[in-house]
TrEMBL record, chains A, B:
Family: Belongs to the RGP family.
Glycosylation sites: R144
Site (Required for activity): R144, R151
Organism: Musa balbisiana
Listed name of the protein: UDP-arabinopyranose mutase
Enzyme Commission numbers on file: 5.4.99.30
Catalyzed reaction equations: UDP-beta-L-arabinofuranose = UDP-beta-L-arabinopyranose
Location of the protein in the cell: Golgi apparatus
Keyword Glycoprotein included in the entry's annotation: yes
UniProt cross-references to Pfam families, sorted A to Z: RGP
Keyword annotations from UniProtKB, A to Z: Cell wall biogenesis/degradation, Glycoprotein, Golgi apparatus, Isomerase
Length: 344, 344
């Protein structure tokens, strides 16, 4: 694992003083942090001493990306994807600033980065379900009846971690169950099977930039847009479609973080309003999308998805034309900052 | 739950004295047991006092089914499906006689039947993955981004339980990892998504007879057949295909049982030999099968699958012609013993 330290960037979108980093000091200090400041760039974000970080505010984003900065959302945690774009590392771990270190049932503090990297460096099994969960974990394996030809698995592109304490509920569920807490520690990592979509939460998420970075765009949402609080969902649907097409794996489960507080359900309801309707059409659409065989890179897949979004979703709302254009701009920016590596 | 007691039969295939029932006394005594004696019918199977049971040996099976008894395997735990056929109950729980009561991490003995019934009477969610696992469990729900139109779920047909201590490994894995024990208690129930097959183990399995009984045929395996130790796998592939087609759910995870001893890996290797090869072709075949829309009952689906097995798998081995014929005989026997209920 020591070898991995310089292959990981931790990306944190924020609007406030980063006191939460104190909780993570023993776990994050060995890594480089990319802090993406959302909202008013004249505000000062305080970062505790001793961390290795770069901080980018909106002025920085505009300066660095120029006209292509239009694809980075404002006043939405979607701005985190600017950090994905400018990172030079193989792996990204992104975490919200209201998430603290969780403890496992034995009381031990959980090193979320280490578990995510473990998930990413071991293969996934999207073509057949293993009933004892991740067969690459210690003490587990493939069960009787698992085809031997499938036991090498496929490279893992995404590791989706979970949350203890405050669960990631939508506004209606928050309103109905204000006191519900997530207390069940499920000691499992699961490959989400090929062809199955899932609600990817951006709170505690890691991925392999080289494999899936271009498809980890969190969309054009937030300020001035009719679509809010669906940035991670959008990235989840599209990155899963791309992973399925390219034969890459997506895992969910461990590691847990401690999610400290629920956001205001009334504010959330106002933000989610359109998304709650639209997801009923968007999800079946992305479930049925088939990418052409000619798409062999994440970039090509993503540009094809931009085309399909424009052609098929504009009838829901003209917003989706803007989204499709922003998706194209994102790939242009990605290619500018991540030119193909010269052959060795 | 009390209301369920007379809607459940527990089916146990065996060749020996059923001492293991002592461990289950508090949990199984309220239910009716169907004991299916495999092997030599002149042997006496001792059942501990105080259980409500019927015991059927091979002579009974031949007498009750007549010529259709040919579809019930001999010297293979597949004989358990005779019990499924003659039961009059809504739910079946089937368990192997080397499985004992397991304990949860708090040390409490696990009532496997109760957990299985809980899994079966709550819906499944095969169309979209819920990252907090079974949303119908206490303390859980659908997470943000889960479409509201899908939150009613679909009826659950199958509940696949797991094993502590001896994991269900194939012979090669047993040989390579003779000391591996399953010690991780994963506190989760998961719907296996639509379109995904899994290795269904018959050791600790429950299902809704009315919904999926006709597709829970464990095949013509064992004595005189070239296919052994794949009875549950075969039933798993086919029942999942039928569930997916009919819009029914399959859950896996809790409850655990304590699996006391591994069977002999050398004997297993000899038995599994053909299956280890064949599964490489059989699984992709069943993954790609599409049933016609006209098939609207489990029986119709199963007869269609019998036809497809005969047409497509005979090239692997002529055995699959015999299997296909036995599948048809099974449905004939099912219909004889389970005539359609008269309209109320």
């Amino acid at each position: 694992m020591a070898l991995m330290k310089d292959e990981v960037d931790i990306v944190i979108p924020t609007i406030r003083t980063l006191d939460f980093l104190e909780s993570w000091r023993p776990f994050f200090q060995p890594y480089h942090l990319i802090i993406v400041q959302d909202g008013d760039p004249s505000k000062t974000i305080k970062v505790p001493e001793g961390f290795d970080y770069d901080l980018y505010n909106r002025d920085d984003i505009n300066r660095i990306l120029g006209p292509k900065a239009s694809c980075i959302s404002y006043k939405e945690s979607a701005c985190r994807c600017f950090g994905f774009l400018i990172s030079k590392k193989k792996y990204i771990y992104t975490i919200d600033d209201d998430c603290f270190v969780a403890k496992d049932p034995s009381g031990k503090e959980i090193d979320a980065v280490e578990q995510h990297i473990q998930n990413l460096i071991t293969p996934s099994t999207p073509f057949f379900f293993n009933t004892l969960y991740d067969p690459y974990r210690e003490g587990a394996d493939f069960v009787r009846g698992y085809p031997f030809s499938m036991r090498s698995g496929v490279p893992t592109a995404v590791s989706h971690g979970l949350w203890l304490n405050i669960p990631d509920y939508d506004a209606p569920t928050q309103l109905v169950k204000p006191r519900e807490r997530s207390t069940r520690y499920v000691d499992a990592v699961i490959t989400i099977p090929k062809g199955t979509l899932y609600p990817m939460c951006g709170m505690n998420l890691a991925f392999d930039r080289e494999l899936i970075g271009p498809a980890m765009y969190f969309g054009l949402l937030g300020d001035g847009q009719p679509f809010k609080r669906y940035d991670d969902m959008l990235a989840g649907w599209l990155s899963k479609v791309v992973c399925d097409h390219l034969g890459l794996g997506v895992k969910t489960g461990l590691p847990y973080i401690w999610h400290s507080k629920a956001s205001d359900p009334f504010v959330n309801l106002k933000k989610e309003f359109n998304g709650l309707f639209w997801q009923e059409e968007l999800i079946p659409f992305f479930q049925s999308v088939v990418l052409p065989k000619e798409c062999t890179t994440a970039q090509q897949c993503y540009l094809e998805l931009a085309k399909l979004v424009k052609e098929n979703l504009a009838s829901i709302d003209p917003y989706f034309i803007r989204l499709a254009d922003a998706m194209v701009t994102w790939i242009e920016a990605w290619d500018e900052f991540n030119p193909p590596k010269p052959a060795a």
